[in-house]
Write a structure and sequence with these properties.
3 domains, 9-stranded mixed β-sheet, alpha/beta, globular, 5-stranded parallel β-sheet
């Protein structure tokens, strides 16, 4: 936890009074942040009704009730009776604006500007193409694409026509892509011929094809729409495969955006759990728009001349979040497709200077990478007025470097944390409050976050579990095709409370901090993955009979992946075999999940019921006290997992 006196930034009082959040507070009758936050959760319906008006959400038909929790907090619905569409609010009503909708750049120097009128025309064309392919409301469309302007086109085309967009990280391995396609039941995948990283072309369409060739996904997708992005030959199946330019460009630019129920599904976003397959979280038009617009307006103080840049991918929550939240106000977003340190370590700072970015959001892992060799103080970053961060807990050294070298000690680091499950944030640092090193400030307005112990009692001054004691509009409406798992994952620990699975604490000054995952899922470079998904991929290697995966501290990514394999008879432990298993894992899940340690062990520690005891493995690997091992049937094997083990 940050020391009580570890203050790093204080807002100018006059500037604070000009922020969106302060003006909103005043309109509600508050000048004190804590009183405002209490009101926002003690009067949920009043707050979210006022918020919807504050961010100027437009409805085809007004809602008759803000929230309906008659089926319990787990199944609360919002803005009952309303008719809405994200595409109307974020695109159609802004076609007359003169500022760009998107400014875009790729690491090879390609760049472009897209107006709202151009984005609407292309989205309408694609919506008509989807209709030509026979898609109907509720069908899923997956996008596995580079971070180029067409990602927004796909999102809005889906929203306009009542289709459900399923973003998938283009850097995933084949198995990870296949599992998400299979679970979602997507009928169409939109992808590109190649993407480019560090000067190398990576065959994206071929990877999608390989994913579709796996048994678990082959019967769901009817068409693959391919954007000609980097050029070159690609594998092709006439009929199912369609070139974007041949399918879309001749379509009409006219399309009537559909009025949809407030609870209509807009996005299916995947996150990993501790067991089983990835979890498909379900997000609605009204809830997604209200949450993302709230955070861009109140937390990041949206102004009409902003250029908002969050270094992310469309396959992670922050991609759709940034697009929807900013476009609700007709704001300009900046998209970058590439590595932030290529072709020079200073590429990111050059990009900010060249494009006059006003808000930069980034992960702690990216900062730890950049602070090794880059020199932000050699560039004009004076256009920046806010910094943002999310994805994982900060360390003090990296946080201070970001604040001092990038922000020049003049602008705040607005650290936020939430998750795919709420397409937004539980905790935020607001621009009107003094900040401590690494803090997340406190609960996001309208979010009833708390820190509790195992019994559910509130705790202060020590680590506890981050929970949400009341529902919020953007919470997932279950898990795709798995309501029981939804209830077990989020609502079963404390009745009526959402368990988010993070360790958190609140210090004596009321400042909130995060301390990593409280469950067994791992946060690798800001990418959440469950041990079961890693272990399943490992076991698919012909030499592995059993596997265990844990998260361990890593200087660059914050948390690294350590894996342990029990080999099948006939396979002997060797450096070459471990390298082969490592390559297999990367091929399956993607290079982000390359393990920092891979070890062969004779057996895994288990309970009498056969459950692998990962926490004991982690304690042994880190050289910590073993703790209570009375439930482990074979505790002697833990010696193989120690820092200087026998493997």
């Amino acid at each position: 936890m940050s020391p009580a006196n570890n203050w790093i930034w204080r807002p100018d009082p006059e500037a604070a009074r000009r922020t969106n959040v302060f003006r909103f507070m005043e309109r509600l009758g508050f000048t004190d942040r804590e009183a405002f936050l209490r009101y926002s959760t003690e009067h949920l319906a009043e707050f979210w009704d006022a918020l919807a008006h504050e961010v100027n959400i437009e409805w085809f038909a007004p809602y008759t009730k803000v929230l309906d929790d008659s089926r319990g907090p787990e199944w609360t619905t919002w803005f009952t009776g309303g008719k809405i569409n994200i595409a109307h609010n974020c695109l159609d009503r802004h076609v007359g604006r003169t500022n760009p909708a998107i400014v875009w750049e790729a690491e090879n120097g390609s760049s472009g500007v897209v107006t709202f009128a151009e984005l609407q025309a292309q989205s309408n064309r694609l919506a008509n193409a989807f209709q030509e392919l026979g898609l109907v409301r509720g069908d899923r469309v997956a996008l596995c694409m580079p971070m180029c302007p067409e990602v927004a086109t796909v999102l809005y085309a889906c929203f306009k026509s009542g289709l459900v967009a399923v973003p998938i990280f283009a850097g995933f391995g084949v198995k990870a892509i296949a599992s998400r396609l299979a679970d979602s039941g997507a009928k169409v995948v939109v992808t590109a011929d190649y993407l480019e990283r560090r000067g190398k072309r990576i065959p994206l369409k071929a990877k999608v094809d390989e994913a579709l060739s796996l048994d678990l996904a082959m019967n769901t997708v009817e068409h693959v729409i391919v954007l000609r992005y980097r050029g070159g030959d690609v594998p092709w199946s006439a009929g199912p495969d369609l070139w974007w330019h041949e399918l879309v460009n001749y379509q009409s630019t006219q399309y009537a955006t559909a009025p949809l129920d407030s609870e209509a599904t807009a996005l299916l976003l995947y996150t990993s759990g501790t067991t089983g397959k990835p979890k498909g979280t379900i997000h609605t038009h009204a809830g997604t728009l209200a949450q993302t617009a709230k955070e861009i307006h109140l937390v990041f103080d949206h102004q009409s001349d902003d250029r908002f840049f969050w270094l992310s991918d469309i396959g992670w929550m922050m991609g759709p979040w940034a697009i929807i939240g900013n476009h609700n106000f007709g704001g300009t977003i900046f998209l970058y497709d590439g590595a932030p340190d290529f072709p020079t370590p200073d590429r990111l700072w050059q990009t900010i200077e060249r494009n006059r970015i006003t808000m930069l959001g980034i992960s702690p892992t990216a900062i730890r990478l950049l602070m090794r060799r880059s020199h932000p103080d050699q560039y004009d970053l004076s256009s920046l007025r806010l910094l943002g961060s999310t994805g994982e807990p900060w360390d003090e050294t990296s946080y201070r470097w970001f604040f001092e070298k990038v922000g020049n000690e003049r602008i705040p680091v607005l650290n936020i944390s939430g998750g795919t499950e709420i397409v937004g944030c539980f905790l935020v640092a607001l621009p009107i409050q003094p900040l401590k090193v690494c803090t997340l400030g406190g609960p996001s307005p309208g979010i009833a976050a708390e820190v509790v112990d195992a019994s559910g009692a509130l705790v202060r001054g020590e680590q506890g579990y981050l929970v949400c004691t009341k529902p919020a509009p953007s919470m997932t409406r279950g898990l795709w095709n798995d309501s029981a798992r939804y209830l077990e994952s989020y609502w079963s620990t404390w009745k009526g409370w959402w368990n988010h699975g993070d360790w958190a604490s609140v210090d004596s000054d009321g400042y909130w901090f995060l301390h990593g995952r409280a469950d067994e899922s791992m946060n690798i470079a800001g990418r959440k993955v469950g041990p079961a998904e890693v272990e399943e991929a490992l076991i698919e290697h012909p030499g592995v009979s059993e596997a265990a995966a844990i998260g361990v501290p890593d200087a660059l990514t914050g948390e690294g992946l350590a894996v342990f394999c029990v080999l099948k008879p006939g396979f002997d432990d060797s450096v070459s075999l471990r390298e082969e298993i490592c390559r297999h894992l990367v091929q399956s899940l993607g290079p982000t999940f390359k393990p920092v340690s891979i070890r062969a062990v004779p057996e895994l520690p288990k309970t009498q019921s056969g459950k692998v005891v990962r926490r004991s493995i982690r304690r042994a690997f880190l050289g910590e006290d073993a703790g209570d091992i009375s439930t482990i049937e074979n505790p002697g094997v833990l010696e193989w997992f120690q820092p200087e083990g026998k493997a």
